[in-house]
Design brief:
The complex is a heterodimer of chains A (274) and B (397).
Chain A (H helix, E strand, L loop, with lengths): L1 H4 L3 H6 L6 H5 L8 H6 L4 E10 L6 E11 L4 E5 L6 H8 L7 E6 L2 E5 L7 H8 E4 L11 H11 L4 H14 L15 H13 L5 E5 L7 H18 L2 E5 L11 E6 L2 E6 L7
Parallel strand pairs in A: 3-8, 3-9, 6-7, 7-8
Antiparallel strand pairs in A: 1-2, 1-4, 4-5, 9-10
Helix pairs in contact in A: 7-8, 7-9, 9-10
Chain B lengths: L3 H8 L1 H39 L3 E5 L12 E2 L2 H6 L4 E16 L2 E10 L12 E2 L8 E5 L9 E4 L2 E9 L10 E5 H9 L3 H13 L11 H10 L3 E2 L1 E6 L5 H9 L4 E5 H12 L1 H31 L2 H9 L4 H30 L11 H27 L4 H4 L2
Parallel strand pairs in B: 4-9, 6-8
Antiparallel strand pairs in B: 1-11, 1-12, 2-10, 3-4, 3-11, 5-8, 6-9, 7-8
Helix pairs in contact in B: 1-11, 2-8, 2-9, 2-11, 2-12, 5-6, 9-11, 9-12, 11-12
Classes of the chains: A alpha/beta (274), B alpha+beta (397).
């Protein structure tokens, strides 16, 4: 809301993270608080990220200095040929694989700088990163609501809170009517929406989507992208979509190409898909 | 937190239940084996308790009437009755033999008793005790005889006048009680053909059938055709007397040995059924190993079928202990289902065993703990596999 009124203000405040809430409280009554200021930092910022597998003569540099920045609410594409380092980058960003060097910051908070910064990668994945896969990979022995509530329950939220949040997300993704259904009773599109709801459960600043439209036809692929865009805007979550899918690449406003372990930023078409 | 194990079990309950039933049948066999051992011990104790004796006086250097052959003169009991501390003493004769019932052979222990004396069955479930001196019988219900039935034993027919219960030998054979004289005859006397043959041999022997010694041959016949032997004398001690105290002077007699009840228990349980107990023990160990292997294999296979889900769980931040707990709970759940099924089937099929199967609650509790321990140990391989799953496999690439 405040961004619409003072669109320049977000940029101004981003450089004033050190200010305390009370510094603004009396001056800009009714304007965004410092928490909003913090949110206005990039959802994810990556600088000179490198990853080397092996050592000595057999060492392979999968990432050779990746730079990347995604704002809250933004959906960017990450494309590149096979073997270019996409998966390695995704694993490093997802705190699944430890990078060799570089920096990763989430919402302005540096979580990796030559090593994980006093943070358990597992807790990082649980609390601050969401994942959407090519296949939904939902837990088949849990129903829809429990699948969405699971990350919250793993984070220690109460059953009641977790299920309430799950129901809200399922409603936002138009699958509330399937809340009690078994996973096997859902269509492929419904399963993918439930997977997106699960990724959003802990309100992570960043969601990593690994080829989420690969098995879908054009119509359904665009529907998934539409949902991702809507969710990104609604929940102020940045989404990095790794894809080969020619159908959806034109929908991104910004695209990172990855080649030989390095990223190159490009402005996308940003085609409006409604 | 929701129970991941519970949900997984409910999700694939059919597979889980069938696996549990299969394991349960194995556990049922294990519990039955333990029950058979307990039954053997209990049979031994029942045999001693039902005899009503405090002391067993048997042939010297033997382990008594149940474990080894023992032969005593049948007038020994008179001497024993005169000892201080002896309330009652009575002869008994034991003989295991096959008897026919309804066209089928039944293995039974024939017990010769003196009515109203130690050795007599202490309670009847039907009919009356032995009253006549000959040709009456009291049978254990496991023989299948009913009141009024006739039992053919060697040359004579015995009428069943009473039925008793839980009166079995140390090897589980049901008992048939008959008067002592009849039992001595059954045990020691020869059949008609053998007697005629023996008489002919005596009469043809000039040393035994001397013309100048009339009556010698008849005396020999009488000696050969009457038995004065019994297998043991059962002694009841007088109130206030210690059985060991009463036994000590008897042991000083030549040619006899006296055992107290704890000593007889020791003979029956530690010696007579020791080999069977070891046999069952080895079988139990093998069954435990087989059960562990089966649970381990099942849990491992179930875990292999969930590796993708485990990778996703790890990727979204599940702790190792959450995943290990899920697998452990499933293994324990399988154990609980298996135990419930095993206990049920062991109880249901116990009456159909020819020998007494005693399923003690204590054994059931120990069995449950053993099953849970085996299941917990069996799940370790699966847990190790699950914890080695790389969450990156959920991402692919």
């Amino acid at each position: 809301m405040c961004f619409r009124v003072f669109p320049w203000l977000g940029l101004e405040w981003r450089s004033k993270l050190f200010l305390q809430e009370q510094d603004y409280g009396n001056i800009f009554c009714g304007l965004p608080k410092v928490s909003t200021v913090l949110e206005s930092a990039p959802a994810i910022e990556v600088a000179d990220l490198r990853k080397r597998y092996g050592s000595g003569d057999t060492a392979v540099d999968a990432l050779k200095g990746v730079d990347l920045s995604v704002q809250p609410g933004e959906v960017v594409g990450l494309i590149g040929p096979s073997g270019s380092g996409k998966s390695t980058l995704l694993k490093c960003l997802g705190a699944v694989t430890e990078p060799s060097s570089g920096q990763i910051a989430l919402s302005g908070d540096t979580v990796y700088a030559g090593g994980w910064r006093n943070i358990d990668p597992r807790a990082l994945r649980r609390d601050r990163i969401g994942f959407v896969f090519q296949a939904p990979y939902l837990i088949p022995f849990l129903d829809v609501t429990d699948n969405v509530a699971l990350p919250l329950l793993l984070a220690g939220r109460s059953n009641r809170d977790a299920r309430q949040r799950a129901r809200e997300l399922l409603a936002a993704l138009d699958v509330a009517h399937r809340a009690q259904a078994a996973i096997t009773q859902l269509s492929g599109g419904e399963q993918q929406r439930v997977a997106i709801a699960r990724a959003l459960a802990n309100q992570p600043p960043i969601i990593l989507a690994d080829e989420p439209t690969a098995p879908l036809d054009s119509e359904r692929a665009l529907a998934v992208v539409r949902i991702l865009n809507r969710m990104a805007a609604q929940y102020r979550t940045a989404i990095i979509v790794v894809t080969h899918d020619e159908k959806i690449i034109p929908t991104f406003k910004r695209i990172y190409h990855i080649r030989d372990g390095k990223t190159y930023e490009e402005t996308g078409e940003g085609r409006d898909i409604g | 937190m929701i129970s991941l194990a519970g949900r997984d079990i409910l999700h694939s309950w059919g597979k889980y239940a069938f696996t549990g039933v299969g394991l349960g049948l194995l556990i049922g066999v294990t519990l039955s084996m333990a029950g058979i051992y307990r039954g053997m011990v209990d049979d031994g104790k029942a045999l001693l308790a039902n005899s009503g004796a405090d002391l067993w006086v048997v042939q010297q250097d033997t382990l008594g009437p149940y474990a080894e052959p023992s032969s005593l003169r049948d007038d020994l009991y008179r001497s024993l009755r005169g000892l201080p501390g002896v309330l009652r003493a009575a002869n008994v004769a034991y003989l295991t033999l096959q008897i026919e019932h309804a066209g089928q052979e039944v293995r039974a222990m024939l017990v010769g008793i003196q009515p109203g004396e130690p050795g007599e069955p202490r309670y009847l479930i039907a009919g009356r005790p032995l009253e006549r001196a000959h040709y009456e019988a009291v049978a254990d219900v496991k023989t299948g005889f009913q009141i009024g039935d006739a039992i053919q034993i060697r040359r004579h027919r015995y009428t069943v006048v009473g039925l008793t219960q839980r009166m079995v030998s140390a090897s589980g054979d049901p008992m048939v009680f008959i008067p002592l004289r009849d039992a001595q005859e059954v045990q020691f006397l020869k059949d008609n053909h053998a007697l005629l043959n023996e008489r002919a041999r005596v009469l043809a022997n000039p040393a035994l059938n001397r013309p100048g010694v009339p009556g010698l041959a008849e005396a020999l016949f009488s000696s050969q055709e009457n038995s004065r032997m019994v297998n043991a004398v059962l002694v009841q001690v007088a109130p206030g007397w210690d059985a060991e105290t009463v036994a000590q002077p008897i042991r000083r007699w030549k040619q006899v040995q006296a055992y107290t009840r704890p000593q007889m228990e020791e003979i029956l349980i530690a010696k007579l059924i020791a080999t069977s107990a070891k046999q069952i023990g080895v079988f139990l160990v093998i069954l435990a190993i087989v059960s562990a292997a089966i649970v381990s294999f099942i849990i491992y296979t179930m875990t292999l079928g969930k590796l993708r889900e485990i990778a996703v769980l790890k990727l979204i931040g599940a702790r190792n202990r959450t995943i290990a707990g899920m697998i452990l709970q499933e293994a324990l759940g399988l154990g609980l289902i298996g135990f419930a099924v095993g206990k049920t089937v062991a109880t249901l099929w116990a009456p159909y065993f020819p020998k007494y199967v005693l399923l003690e609650p204590g054994d059931a509790v120990r069995g449950l703990l053993a099953v849970l321990l085996i299941c917990a140990l069996a799940s370790l391989v699966a847990i190790r596999t699950a914890l080695q799953v790389d969450p990156a496999t959920a991402i692919g690439g």
